[in-house]
């Protein structure tokens, strides 16, 4: 009965949100309906992820979730790059990285920590994630440092070279973590895991529903993002703040709720995978692909982020690494992540 | 007999030091007598801390020691803030942080390490301390980075906001470490712990004597600090060096000797708590309280430290984190901390 | 038979390379013959190191290897310092540090990881190495930061003071790691270790051959370095790139192959000791000795490295620390180190 009502709400809010978007309805109305829709599709995505995780393991489920979530962002970003809106793209990439590492991870850790005294996840994976996050920082800091004395052409050459290396490193990471060292990085089986409740979907249906939920999320996110600009203009917010905070928060709403949902079920490994894995994917795959795609389109975007963006990303990585490296989490670590997010939020707001 | 002589020396040197101070005696005489007095009150503080630690556990004892030690500094700093001496306040906060993380911790680790091959302390606490130290760095770096393009008003707004967040984070940390996760962060019971010698004071008397010792230490520290200026003027030292090194070393003399004292008794957990806990308290509580207090007094002090101060604090946190994160210490780690302190000392001396 | 051919090739290529060098033969011919010779002497050095390691333990063997390898570099650098070529010296020190931490360590970890799923080394040693690497960064960053507002005389005073502290810290490290805490930092005995094949040399002969191999390596390295300049001039490469990459790669060829050789024999502890130990020795001993030697020669070199060099060293230390701190390695960690090396390589190439 409760499930039926849920799916009714999901379909109704999704259709209403789409209709209002294509009919160019009043933006306030669009905003409210899209917010309702995003809550439903995020819930749907959570269920589908959980079902896939049941068959594929927590990590693969988390990876699929992160990938489909970022696929939507990648598509939106390619359109922005085509139009030459590089600053907006970089701000939203920055926002996604810090949003995932601080807000999504922070909320998950806090929510899970309020329910369970201590939650654990694979410590080797946490250690590898930390090394990859350092690679991400290095790949952003080095072009920023060296481009000071470079010509535009040299900066673009360095950016393309670094982008190609990052894509190779990311693909080899998938080979490593999903094939050669899959077992070592897996979460330990929790006793009684098999008896947990989850939707009674077959493996194939679960994958199909995960795809469907992702596409729906991407669409609703886009409709919602479309209404944000008008709102922010009314309140006099800067492009940097909108890109790095508003769009990132709303665009990642699905990841947020899916991760929190999993943390509350004590599946911290999957929650971390969504948050950290998503950040890594943006830094090591989405950003480099945009650099290479823009170069192929004849209007190359470089990898040089502003000093503020670099400071925010570095700070987010350092605190997330410090907190996650022991493979354990508790409520206070969630508080720390959220405090850092708030500090960055007010700083960007005031810029 | 030996104990009686100690208390006789304590009372005599304390009264003499106070008398010379209020009689405005010759500053050289004041300096020598205050130095003698600080050795006695520090020894008294060490005994009282040990006795409280006996009843309350090593960590709570260390926390009380750090708190009362910093309470004195906070009071002195508020007077300086009232007079608008912001640079001097920030220099002495910087000096307290690096003095505790490098000098106090370094001396404790070295002294303990020369007596015991390896000393251990709670590794989870070390990990949390490291995350809190990162929060402290972030809270100081972000205002410094962003204030470049800010107006004074925006810088003050950011400072007040960050200060409020730090105070909340610090209070939640007390809730976490003293209430919800007290057991997880406690030092493991050392076999035979109960039979150790310690002053035969009751729990209530121990707390009272700890308070008394702290007040005496605060007074003697202040008298000693008062004589330092005349000395340093004679030797042509800069305000930055005086604030960050001389005042910090003498003002924290009690913490120094209490921590070394505990390390020599193989109570490394309490020694680390004094050194690291005191630094954290200054960065996450004393500094923010000064920002908010100055704002209420109508002459707001911001959280923007100089580039030199930030470099010194960052460097101190990184080496202290690297050394303490495994929950073990040995003499060479003490050497490393002291070497970094000396490098910073000569750099500040030459500025 | 195979061994005989090896020693025949070693002697022939060594003599030919030396003869061509002193006869000032065609530089292309010199380059090719020296390359062949370096492969043979590196192989010889590897055998001698392995034999010494058999008697002395993996770590002492690694330390001896690192020391003799750097002795050659120290001698070459002293000649450069005498001629006032400070920038070239600093570039080659930078190159040696990042070459060892990224290229040598990366190739060893990758090669070993392709053969063994997971290799281990002493985790306490890795932790201490990390702290020493931080000391190295601090010792380079602090003079660079503070020298901005210093006179040349003050910068030299700070450099000499820091150099003296680093030499003391390094000598105490040898005392700590080779004497007082030798057992704690040793690699665990691998089952069946004693039965491994190794050259049937006595302990004394092994040490003599290690010395001989080191001297031969130093000579061939120098001859090879001599030919590099003409090559690079033809291809229009910058002094910075030559110093930091070409000279460092070729000059450390022996360390490279010895470390890879040991990794393939699953002696990861010795491989890490060569790579990390060699970097530490350069930062904490070779560089300070050059500062003090130049001061005694009346033409003082300071410890102020360029911003690019500091960024490269910091980045190399951070990723190497992140990867080595768990005392385990796998092929993907080798990939990460090499990717960072390539990113730095292209950045320095474009400067």
UniProtKB/TrEMBL annotation, chains A, B, C:
Membrane topology classification: Multi-pass membrane protein
Highest rank taxon of the organism: Bacteria
Cell location: Endomembrane system
InterPro entries: CaH_exchang, CAX-like, NaCa_Exmemb, NCX_ion-bd_dom_sf
Entry keyword set: Antiport, Calcium, Calcium transport, Ion transport, Membrane, Transmembrane, Transmembrane helix, Transport
Keyword Transmembrane attributed: yes
Transmembrane annotation, as ranges: 5-23, 29-48, 60-81, 93-114, 126-146, 158-180, 201-220, 240-264, 276-297, 303-320, 332-350
Residue ranges of domain Sodium/calcium exchanger membrane region in the record: 28-178, 206-344
Chief location category: membrane
Its job: Ca(+)/H(+) antiporter that extrudes calcium in exchange for external protons.
Protein family per UniProt: Belongs to the Ca(2+):cation antiporter (CaCA) (TC 2.A.19) family.
Protein name (Swiss-Prot/TrEMBL): Ca(2+)/H(+) antiporter
């Amino acid at each position: 009965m409760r499930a039926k009502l849920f799916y009714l709400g999901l379909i109704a809010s999704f259709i209403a949100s789409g209709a209002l978007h294509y009919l160019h309805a009043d933006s306030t109305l669009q905003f409210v309906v899209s917010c309702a829709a995003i809550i439903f599709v995020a819930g749907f995505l959570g269920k589908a992820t959980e079902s896939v995780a049941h068959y594929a393991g927590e990590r693969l489920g988390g990876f699929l979730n992160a990938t489909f979530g970022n696929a939507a962002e990648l598509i939106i970003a390619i359109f922005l790059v085509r139009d030459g809106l590089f600053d907006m793209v970089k701000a939203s990439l920055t926002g996604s990285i810090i949003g995932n590492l601080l807000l999504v991870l922070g909320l998950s850790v806090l929510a899970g920590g309020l329910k369970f005294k201590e939650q654990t996840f694979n410590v080797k994976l946490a250690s590898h994630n930390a090394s990859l996050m350092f690679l991400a920082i290095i790949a952003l800091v080095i072009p920023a440092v060296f481009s000071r004395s470079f010509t535009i052409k040299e900066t673009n050459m360095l950016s393309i070279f670094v982008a190609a290396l990052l894509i190779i490193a990311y693909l080899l990471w998938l080979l490593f973590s999903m094939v050669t060292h899959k077992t070592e990085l897996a979460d330990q089986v929790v006793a009684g895991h098999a008896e947990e409740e989850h939707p009674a979907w077959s493996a194939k249906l679960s994958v199909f529903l995960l795809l469907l939920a992702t596409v729906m999320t991407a669409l609703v996110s886009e409709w919602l993002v479309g209404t944000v600009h008008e709102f922010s203009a009314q309140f006099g917010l800067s492009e940097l703040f909108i890109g790095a905070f508003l769009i990132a928060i709303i665009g990642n709403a699905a990841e947020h709720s899916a991760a929190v949902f999993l943390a509350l079920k004590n599946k911290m490994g999957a929650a971390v995978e969504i948050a950290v894995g998503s950040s890594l994917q943006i830094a090591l795959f989405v950003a480099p692909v945009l650099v290479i795609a823009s170069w192929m389109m004849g209007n190359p975007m470089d990898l040089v982020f502003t000093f503020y963006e670099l400071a925010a990303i570095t700070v987010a990585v350092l605190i997330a690494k410090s907190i996650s490296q022991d493979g354990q989490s508790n409520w206070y670590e969630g508080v720390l992540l959220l405090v850092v997010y708030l500090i960055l939020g007010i700083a960007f707001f005031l810029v």
